[in-house]
Specification:
CATH topology: Rossmann fold
Number of helices: 7
Number of strands: 6
Bound molecules: flavin mononucleotide
Order of helices and strands: EHEHHEHEHHEEH
Helix content: 25-40%
Number of domains: 1
CATH superfamily: Flavodoxin domain
Structural class: alpha/beta
CATH class: Alpha Beta
CATH architecture: 3-Layer(aba) Sandwich
Radius of gyration: 16 Å
Distance between the termini: 37 Å
């Protein structure tokens, strides 16, 4: 199984979580990482045909990002808008992503318990991420349960270290063997 990781962080040099995940995933032989900020440049311009080539060769596509204002950083939206074109991803002849898997790898500053009805973030991660879930459905991809590391701003290095094998497993384990967990919000 080949996995493509689309990393959407505005500045990986200043990142403490996503940079570590990006570096670890980049060392995996069956994983191709793509730093969208580097590829798109300051104007976030993507060459759709080049993106389509890398997408076609992937079985699983992961979007990896820090949670910013309850969504992804803008470079990922730019990539989606410019790359998921009619005739490729949807519409007549637009079946190139059908059957591939889509997963999200996310770090949040807020703790897990804040992502619940009645807490200060009001909604679960699953609820915040419904635009991605529907995007997957629209283009015929199989949407995987998300991977989230909460409290990322207060994470010490040991906890980030411990998350790395889990991220690699999420990226490389075939779906039949993937341990799919329901969203849990600790008290
Ligand atoms: C512009 C901005 C918006 C953010 N919005 C949220 C948010 O909506 N929810 C949240 O839990 N954390 C939020 N954070 C915290 C980031 O998710 C956190 O700093 C990031 O996941 C850490 O990852 P990194 O070390 O790879 O940058 C925000 C941070 C920034 C800079």
């Amino acid at each position: 199984m080949k996995t493509l990781v689309l990393t959407a962080h505005p500045d990986l040099d200043t990142s403490s979580v996503n940079r570590r995940w990006y570096e670890a995933l980049s060392r995996e032989p069956t994983v191709t990482t793509r730093d969208l900020t580097a590829v798109g440049g300051p104007e976030m311009r993507f060459e759709p045909r080049a993106e389509h080539v890398v997408l076609r060769s992937a079985d699983r596509v992961l979007m990896q990002f820090p949670f910013y204002w309850y969504s992804a950083p803008p470079v990922l939206k730019a990539w989606l808008d410019q790359v998921l074109l009619p005739g490729f991803a949807y519409g007549p002849g637009g079946d190139q992503l059908v059957g591939k898997e889509l997963g999200l790898v996310i770090s949040t500053g807020g703790p897990a318990k804040s992502y619940a009805s009645g807490s200060y973030n009001s909604f679960t991660m699953t609820e915040f991420l419904t635009p991605f879930e529907q995007t997957a459905k629209m283009v015929g991809m199989r949407y995987l349960p998300h991977f989230v590391l909460h409290s990322a701003m207060s994470r010490d290095r040991a906890i980030v270290d411990a998350s790395i094998p889990a991220v690699i497993s999420y990226a490389t384990t075939p779906i039949a063997d993937l341990h799919l967990r329901k969203e849990r919000v600790p008290a």
